Amino acid sequence: MTRQRFSGLSLLWNSLGGHRNWRAQWRRAAPQAEYDAVIIGGGGHGLGTAYYLAAEHGYTRVAVLEKGWIGGGNTGRNTTIIRSNYLFDESARLYDHSVKMWGDLSQVLNYNVMFSPRGVMMLAHTVHDVQVAKRHIHANRCNGVDNEWLSPEEAKAFCPPLNIEPGLRYPVLGAALQRRGGTARHDAVAWGYARAADALGVDIVENCEVTGIRRDASGAVEALETSRGLIRTRKVGVVAAGNTSVVLGMAGVRVPLESFPLQALVSEPIKPVFPCVVMSNGIHAYISQSDKGELVIGAGTDVYTSYTQRGALHVNMHTLEAICELFPMFRRMRMLRNWGGIVDVTPDRSPIIGKTPVPGLYVNCGWGTGGFKATPASGWTYAHTLATGKPHPLNAPFSLDRFERGATIDETGSGPMPNSR
Asked: Please, is 384 exposed, middle or buried when counting C-beta atoms within 10 Å of its C-beta (0-12, 13-18, 19+)?
């Protein structure tokens, strides 16, 4: 399928015909009997993997299987924050590569993903928060990642709605600012990758649930059982987010994952008033404003494991109480809707990207609450791993066997083992 290019000229030309001549973004493909590689999961990471397999590694027979619709999972349910100010070297390199890829992704895909590097500011409320933030800043600078410390007054100058009064329950003692961070439009990312992959011959098969993984006498993958028939392939990439452990279980593979609901909500739309992204790990709240004018608000994960896309009301209430204290001007605003996603979390809160013990079966999972920001680099490195059978240097530290070796990348300090160096 030849991709219809988007441009100002094409917009003007189609306006003359009442915009009735635009082609479908991608084909509604039916599954073929056999493929060189199959990606399970039609979110941003899966579609990005398929695109880079075709664009950079010459794969012509690739399918993306999605049990629902494209972008209906976590890709369309997150709060769209992009940043790379992670503590450890391995994480900083991977996420910063992704931030660099976001810069020209719209041009690469010929699709406006609406990337907006408006800055991400992370608040510090206690002496411990200040120490942790400054440690991150120094570590980031060593890795060439921009991050700077702001006083409370400088934080308010960067984000005028912020309340820095000293009598707050969570007083603002300062903030770490990554100016290159920002947001992008989540559904546009999924659609852009789907459209670009389809133009390179990738079959995007929606409403196709994988129900089984067949292995041959040697134990290697040989076929997938799906709700739309048997599909033969020798190479399978699982990118199923919160359902990853379920899919891998079909091949007898267990991974150290827990799945939790993660909630978000948006307000009624208002005129532009919020210039950046503000996050507070101490009170589990973050906020930005969308291009439609809605305040996009995120909460922490629910405390119980679940595969549901719903969460408990008290989590949102706690988040809104904190938001209203930090930004009093929003107290009278109405919330428009809320939703939940399923986040997959590893013991060290870092992703798994690479091979499994089953030949031909690969996994990309464990992104927790940070998956959207890594979409381009995740797809790019995962495609390299699938195509060559070897990890790219950026994702090599994130192998599944790191838990056996004790080489965890503990981004929260809550992993089961000390970080091995």
From this structure: buried
Instruction: Output b/e per residue, 27-39; b: 16+ Cβ within 10 A.
Output: bebebeeebebbb
Provide mean pLDDT across the span 290-313: 88
Kindly give, in sequence order, each residue whose CB lies less than 8 Å from that of residue 132, ignoring residues fewer than 6 positions away: 124
Taking the CA atoms of residue 101, residue 118, residue 239 and residue 75 in that order, the dihedral angle to the nearest 10 degrees is -130
Residues paired with residue 205 on neighbouring β-strands, in sequence order: 65
For 311-326, what is the mean pLDDT? 89
Name the nearest CA neighbour of 377 among 413, 351, 356, 412.
Answer: 351
In which residue are the tokens 């919330």 written?
Answer: 335
Query: How is residue 306 written in tokens?
Result: 């679940």
Q: Are 116 and 183 in contact (CB under 8 A)?
A: yes
CA distance 108 to 285: 33
Nearest CA to 27 among 275, 206, 262, 248? 206
What DSSP character marks residue 287? E
Residue 302 backbone dihedrals phi, psi, to 5 degrees: -65, 160
pTM here is 0.94
- Which pLDDT score is estimated for 307? 85
9 CB neighbour count, 10 Å cutoff: 9
DSSP track, 172-215? --EEEEETT-EE--HHHHHHHHHHHHHHTT-EEE-S--EEEEEE
The dihedral region occupied by 174, where left means phi > 0, alpha psi between -120 and 50, and beta the remainder, is left
Q: Is residue 338 classed exposed, middle or buried when 0-12, 13-18 and 19+ CB atoms within 10 A define those classes?
A: middle
3-state SS, residue 395: coil
User: Per residue in 31-61, pLDDT tens?
Assistant: 999 999 999 999 999 999 999 999 999 999 9
